[in-house]
Design a protein that fits this description.
Largest sheet: 4 strands, antiparallel
Number of domains: 1
Helix content: under 10%
Oligomer: single chain
Strand order of the largest sheet: 1-4-8-6
CATH class: Mainly Beta
Shape: globular
CATH topology: Deoxyuridine 5'-Triphosphate Nucleotidohydrolase, Chain A
Strand content: 35-45%
Number of helices: 1
Order of helices and strands: EEEEEHEEEEE
């Protein structure tokens, strides 16, 4: 298996949530799991129909040619109707060096009923995905900002 990434915690100055010292880095539940579970750094309840941003306290270094796709866990989507605000989150390889240290924040939208998560429980999953570029791609721009900044060149 090709190893292409590594998770880290962001610095304390980039994290405004609770329990910085107890942040658990994402991990796979089994050797056959494609997804890395993201764990709640604090208790939260996502009320039906509401939105909530979870500061994970996590960043990831990814080899060029790969990205990290964040998705809801299958159970939370199926049982509660929970989804991500942006359908699927895309963490680019150059996000690691962004102004915000590549802090991964996950915005959830509540579904059919309230969804309560305790600190340390998995609430989202992420999969490393390779990507290609066109033969005539000439992009040379470098990321300056953090989240949502690639359209602000």
């Amino acid at each position: 298996m090709h190893r292409i990434a590594q998770f880290f915690k962001v610095s304390e100055k980039q994290y405004s949530g609770e329990g910085y010292g107890e942040i658990k880095l994402p991990e796979r539940a089994t050797s056959g799991s494609a997804g890395y579970d993201f764990f709640a750094p604090y208790d939260f309840t996502l009320e039906s129909g509401s939105e909530l941003v979870i500061e994970t306290g996590v960043r990831v270094r990814i080899d060029e040619g790969w990205f990290l796709m964040i998705l809801p866990r299958s159970g939370s989507g199926f049982k509660y109707g929970v989804r991500l605000a942006n359908t699927a989150g895309v963490i680019d390889s150059d996000y690691f060096n962004a102004d915000n240290e590549g802090h991964i924040k996950i915005k959830l939208i509540g579904g059919s009923r309230d969804y309560a998560v305790k600190k340390g429980e998995a609430f989202a999953q992420a999969i490393f995905v390779p990507y290609g570029i066109t033969e005539d791609d000439a992009c040379a721009a470098k990321r300056r900002g953090g989240f949502g900044s690639t359209d602000n060149k």
